[in-house]
Amino acid sequence: MLFRDIKRSDAAANELKRQAFELGLEVGMENHIETVGWVSSKLQSIRQDADSAGALEEVKMEYQRGKRLGIARRAKRTIAPQSGHSKKVEGRQGAHAIGEGPRNLRPKTESSFVERIPAKEGIKSTVNVIKFAAGKPEVKKDLNGLFAGIFDIQERLIDVEAGSTPRETFERCLQLLAEVGWIENYDLASFDQLKAVVTLRSTTAIAAAFGRSDEPLCQPICNLLETVGRKTFRKSVMVVEVECVSQGKSACKFEISPRKALANE
To answer: Cβ(152)–Cβ(158) under 8 Å?
Structure first.
């Protein structure tokens, strides 16, 4: 009887790990927001069941594993259409060169730019969030504030005067983020100018205000740091928060690396 109970318990834990992995994979591939809507509800349900089954840590690891794989697959999917688009542009330019007449061609996308997600996916995600906020005045107000706040600081980061070195430019941007209150007490644990790889430790206003969380939750800071990385290194970078104050850590830890590197994963 005890053996059967153990087998049922193991089977339940394995099923929860499978669900967590698949949810993480979808979140990573589709860039879903984890803290609202059905994703938040599903994640909370899986965690509660996992906690009851004594498999919470394993389930959390499977979720993160799936999410990392999903992000990598999304990056590959993003890069592939770009190369095809480039071929079409070259074909049109060649036709123009032999006398087809002037054309209003779209400007070339800089080769150092890599989309986070295809534009259609970004629009779909935006529409889903707006639908979630519809009929909820406070949520709609906060959503508008989120967009406005992020775009305001993005503009200010773009206007920051470049330093004499990439590191100086990076630190000037960090100073701006600290001045407006997004981060504080930051420390550049490592800075590799040639590889465009940076490790940053900092406390953030988001983590301080949110309280306890099982997962890192400073995604808006990651997005701002990607703008900082783009300005510093003149190429698209990806920022991942690997540790968060909300998890009980002494600081939030952000890892920055070139976005194109994901294509080889």
So the answer is: no
* This prediction's pTM: 0.60
- The token pair at 58 is 């394993």
96's tokens: 């123009």
Using CA atoms of 79, 80, 86, 92 in order, give the dihedral in degrees to the nearest 10.
-150
Using DSSP's 3-state secondary structure scheme, residue 192 falls into strand
The answer to whether the beta carbons of residues 40 and 84 sit under 8 Å apart is: no
How many whole angstroms separate alpha carbon 57 and alpha carbon 215? 12
Give Cβ neighbours of residue 65 (< 8 Å, ≥ 6 apart): 21, 24
Q: Quick one: the chain helix, strand, coil %, rounded to 5? A: 65, 10, 25
CA separation for the pair 258, 235 (Å, rounded): 7
Across-strand partners of 198? 191, 256
Asked if 232 and 169 touch (Cβ cutoff 8 Å), the reply is: yes
Q: How far is CA 113 from CA 78, 135, 182, 229, 263, in A?
A: 11, 37, 25, 12, 13
- Which of 224, 244, 258 is CA-nearest to residue 64? 244
**Residues in the chain where the model's pLDDT stays below 50:** 2-3, 81-110, 261-265
57-114: per-residue pLDDT in tens?
Answer: 998 889 888 888 878 777 666 555 444 444 333 433 333 333 444 444 344 444 578 8
Separation CA 13–CA 50 (nearest Å): 7
